[in-house]
Design a protein that fits this description.
CATH architecture of one domain in chain B: 3-Layer(aba) Sandwich
Bound molecules: iron/sulfur cluster
Mean pLDDT of chain B: 95
Oligomer: heterodimer
Shape of chain B: globular
Helix content of chain B: 40-55%
CATH topology of one domain in chain B: Rossmann fold
Helix content of chain A: 40-55%
Low-confidence stretches of chain A: none
Largest interface: A-B, 49 and 50 residues
Radius of gyration of chain B: 21 Å
Strand order of the largest sheet of chain B: 2-1-3-4
Low-confidence stretches of chain B: none
Strand content of chain A: 5-15%
Strand order of the largest sheet of chain A: 2-1-3-4
Strand content of chain B: 5-15%
CATH class of one domain in chain A: Alpha Beta
Chain lengths: ~350, ~400
């Protein structure tokens, strides 16, 4: 299968089963909220919905989309579900599916998500005109995990500070990977990884960044210009989308269940919770900041994101208890609002010197 | 403080009813006061839950259970919610979230929520609701179980939810130490079905033109009645409404009440004291004859297949699934109740409902129903601007009347 004969499927959430889409013969293409389109989504979606989904809908309303054979939505939160609804109004002729996504990751959730993946595979098979073959899924899973491993190597170099403008370069690669066929992306990453080490400026403050949607390269450049070196991040437009899916199965018939489990058990975004340990997200953030030897934590969340809003008091309290300085930035997933926050980032970095 | 409040509410209502000054709404409020007493008595096993939990199953297991939003609504109705919402602002809870949930978090912070034995979260109706349940589980350091409510009612999805509900039963038994008694469950389901049957008749009477119901009598009814499913209280409330509406229908026969405009209320009412219902009825002869959630969207539960029946019921909630499902339901209500207009309060902070405001409006337009979108906060009275709301309602009703 060459890249040319891949039809394109749009997606919008880091939980999307990319390998499954790829295995049915499609190229997954993330519709990112980073194009400047006229603000029209308000006609269908209220002002109180997160700018992530509104900007994506703006793209559809402005016809700023690639030629899509269909759109795969994940039922990850109220806002995403409303996006799927509004998309059907704006693009009535486009094939769409909204895949149900469990909110917890315990054993009882695996069969639920597995059957959703089965349903998705059937639908994609219908759209493409051929059913999903286990060997194709196996191969796509292998490819995406190889891609994740290459990203992991790159992340580790960024963390070590041996890549000048590392966070920006890494983010650029994530954005490309979100819209590129994995084999081609793998080649690009391999090339990037062969580049010689170049030390970052030594007076930068190591920071851990977490949040949801921040695709903009300029935002990462802004962190660096403000003296903050992002040593690691957990964003849904960053590492979370390209993390390894751990697969554990014996027979081909168990592959989809293993994929469901692997996807659900990756690093969660705030929309997922741990039943066994309510509020675990706060602990995860503290642990990640420590693990990466960050001197401070920056949270970036888009406005109106209920999953993050509800967790923020717990996150604040946990970081405070551990004595880790915290800066929360709220925005609309563009660098425009980040720019307004420049002074705050600089002051935060200064305070940590 | 809360225990005293519910005690005095209960005794006041009970004596009013004993003196012959009863009404269906008083019976309903009496049972709510009793639920409040149980929640705050310290003697009952309490569970805080999400809206789509199977309350009859929990009632059969002798757990006093309630959705957390009830507390937000109650604090709003008693006029003291502002302090609780403010408390959450101090710990960094954004004012962009739903005030039901901020009020609940504030109540927990200030020690006003009884400590539960456990919590049951539900993914329907909203992400915010589930997140606040998780927050409470962390706050109280209590165990949490989450029911993932599927989007559709396919056989497989129903089966999955039924399985989760079975797992929930084991979870509850493990914590309370009391196994589920199958006879108690059957008896509870019998009461659920009986309540369902009577409420179906109540709604059929409310549909009549003119309707024997007034704008306030059935406010919050559908959503709150879920708490009484599987209990005698549920049957009693439903019967009281039915008897009263039958009486009114008979007496109205020869002398129909004035009813110029019939309205549908979308989602939940405004929970704090406000002049809207009085304004509608007294100045415009306009009446809210139907609230979106006052409908039976599920079949009687078959005793041979209880968990699947419970699962189907949770999936059928109009707030669950795609907006198209919800719009189709609203359009059906609009036709069945022969309404002239709809009011959507657009609770600020509600992505699930308000988020779809534009699509809901289009859906009503498609069946020729004008909608008034109020932009209010249904729980936080501090943002309510009475004059503005009045002006918008007046203009809307004039427009509706001119179309008749
Ligand atoms: S940013 Fe938050 S509200 Fe928006 S789509 Fe992501 S999880 Fe949902
Ligand atoms: S108003 Fe909306 S966000 Fe608030 S509890 Fe109800 S459904 Fe959830």
């Amino acid at each position: 299968m060459t890249m040319d004969n891949h039809k394109t499927i749009g997606y919008a959430c880091a939980y999307t089963p990319l390998a499954l889409i790829h295995a049915t013969g499609f190229r997954p293409y993330r519709i990112l909220p980073n194009l400047d389109c006229p603000d029209q989504a308000g006609r269908l979606l209220h002002d109180n919905l997160c700018p992530h989904v509104k900007r994506i809908l703006d793209r559809a309303m402005s016809k700023q989309l690639p030629d899509l054979a269909g759109m795969v939505f994940m039922n990850s939160c109220d806002a995403m579900r409303r996006l799927a609804d509004a998309w059907r109004v704006v693009c009535p002729d486009m094939a769409t599916i909204c895949v149900d996504l469990p909110t917890t990751t315990s054993e009882k959730d695996i069969p639920v998500f597995e059957s959703e993946l089965k349903k998705l595979a059937g639908t994609l098979g219908d759209w493409y005109g051929r059913p999903l073959q286990p060997e194709n899924l196996m191969e796509s899973l292998r490819l995406y995990n190889e891609l994740a491993n290459a990203f992991e190597r790159m992340r580790s170099r960024v963390q070590q500070g041996v890549m000048r403008n590392g966070a920006v370069l890494l983010q650029e690669a994530y954005l490309q990977a979100a819209c590129t066929e994995p084999q081609a992306m793998l080649s690009r990453l391999k090339m990037l990884l062969t580049e010689k080490d170049q030390e970052q400026k030594s007076d930068m403050i190591p920071m851990y960044l977490f949040g949801n949607v921040l695709p903009d390269l300029e935002a990462f450049a802004l962190f660096e210009a403000s003296g903050a070196r992002i040593v690691a991040e957990d964003l849904c437009t960053g590492s979370r989308a390209f993390a390894e899916v751990k697969m554990d199965f014996k027979k081909p018939g168990e592959m989809l269940a293993a994929y469901a489990k692997g996807l659900l058990q990756r690093q969660p975004c705030a929309r997922t919770l741990c039943e066994a340990q309510p509020g675990k997200m706060a602990e995860d953030i503290v642990a990640a900041a420590r693990r990466h030897q960050a001197r401070g934590v920056i949270g970036y969340t888009v406005k109106f994101c209920d999953p993050y809003i509800a967790r923020m008091p717990g996150i604040r309290a946990a970081l405070k208890q551990e004595g880790i300085p915290f800066l929360l930035l709220e925005g609309d997933c563009t660098v425009r609002t980040m720019g307004q926050q420049k002074t705050r980032i600089e002051a935060f970095t200064e305070m940590l010197r | 403080m809360m225990k005293e409040y519910f005690d005095s509410l209960e005794s006041g209502l009970q004596s009013a009813i004993a003196q012959g000054k009863g009404s269906p709404r008083k019976t309903y409020s009496l049972e709510l006061a009793r639920l409040g007493q149980r929640l705050y008595s310290g003697e009952h096993k309490v569970a805080w839950c999400g809206i789509a939990a199977p309350y009859d199953l929990l009632n059969a297991m002798e757990v006093t259970s309630c959705f957390v939003e009830f507390i937000g609504a109650m604090l709003a109705s008693t006029g003291i919610v502002g302090d609780f919402i403010e408390a959450t602002e101090q710990i960094g809870y954004s004012s962009d979230s739903c005030s039901y949930h901020r009020a609940v978090s504030g109540a927990a912070m200030k020690g006003l929520m009884p400590k539960p034995e456990f919590l049951i979260g539900t993914t329907c109706p909203c992400s915010g609701g589930l997140a606040v349940i998780e927050h409470l589980a962390a706050h109280f350091e209590k165990q949490l179980f989450v029911l993932h409510i599927p989007q559709n009612e396919s056989r497989e999805e129903v089966r999955h939810l039924a399985e989760q509900m079975r797992a929930m039963t084991s979870f509850v038994s493990k914590i309370t130490g009391v196994p589920l008694d199958p006879d108690k469950l059957k008896s509870a389901i019998g009461k659920t079905n009986r309540t369902r049957e009577i409420i179906t008749q109540v709604y059929a009477l409310a549909r009549q033109v003119p309707s024997p119901i007034n704008s306030k009598e059935l406010s919050n009814f559908g959503i709150v009645m879920a708490l009484f499913l599987g209990t005698d209280a549920g049957v009693t409330i439903a019967e009281t409404y039915l008897e009263e509406l039958q009486k009114r229908t008979q007496s109205m026969g020869s002398n129909p009440a004035k009813e110029k405009i019939r309205l549908l209320w979308v989602q939940n009412r405004i929970q704090f004291k406000n002049p809207i219902e009085n304004l509608l009825e007294q100045e415009y002869g306009a009446k809210i004859v139907i609230d979106e959630l006052n409908d039976i969207t599920w079949d009687p539960i078959d005793n041979g297949d209880i968990y699947e029946g419970l699962a189907r019921r949770s999936i059928s909630i109009p707030f669950n699934g795609s907006i198209q499902k919800r719009i189709t339901h609203l359009q059906k209500l609009a036709q069945d109740y022969r309404i002239d207009g709809a009011i959507n309060p657009c609770n600020w902070g509600c992505r699930q409902g308000t988020g779809a405001r534009g699509m809901i409006e289009e859906g009503f337009k498609a069946v020729g129903i004008p909608v008034l979108n109020l932009e209010v906060d249904c729980v936080d009275p501090r943002k309510f601007t009475e004059g503005q709301v009045k002006t918008r309602i007046e203009a809307f009703l004039e427009m509706v009347e001119s179309r008749k």
